[in-house]
Amino acid sequence: MSADMLPLITKALGETVYMVAVSMIISSLLGIPLGVLLHTTSKGQILECLPINRVVGAIVNAIRSIPFIILMVAIIPLTRLIVGSAIGTTAAMVPLVLASVPFIGRQVETSLREIPYGIVEAAQSMGATPLQIIRKVFLPEAMPNIVAQLTTVIISLIGESAMAGAIGGGGLGDLAIRYGYQRFRPDIMIATVIVLIIMVQIVQFAGNKLAKHLDKR
């Protein structure tokens, strides 16, 4: 790989980190409350409301069933409406967030289901409100699992951000396609793959350490 390609790889790496970091923050802010809603409105839970649960669950399942590459193309009008363009790293974050929020919601819901209901009953017997139970029981108890699940989501976002390069999303995927594939530069392709593998390894290691630190059991 020639030295003139190093700035391109550095720039592409920065774009990928930007896409993944911002998308993950927004997705978490929306997806964690979504997961709490899905869990607490299910049958036998503290805010049981089956009509809301079924409607929200159906929407979540519908979005999750759409392959990411199709989702990116399908919501191009929405992306233009939100960010003013369908090309670039900022534009790529719209489908990244839309794909991640339902995934996080289901992951958080699964984590909350693993909490023994006896803990919830104990909190209720002491007069805790539903909001207090969510803040002081559900989220603290499930946080190690939630962190582990969010680590998986970040890794998925790294892969999807690379896929976004197929429609001009920028980042390492765009670099691999434009230089590695279209210009027949296998060295660039290999370099981007190596960088992506290193990113995944770092994220997985950091996520495992944080989840272990938060697990007080």
From TrEMBL:
Stretches assigned to the ABC transmembrane type-1 domain: 13-207
Highest rank taxon of the organism: Bacteria
GO cellular-component term (any): plasma membrane
Cell location: Cell membrane
A biological-process GO annotation: D-methionine transmembrane transport
Key word Cell membrane present: yes
Predominant subcellular localization, coarse grouping: membrane
Membrane topology: Multi-pass membrane protein
Descriptive protein name: Methionine ABC transporter permease
Natural source organism: Anaerovibrio lipolyticus
Record lineage: Bacteria, Bacillati, Bacillota, Negativicutes, Selenomonadales
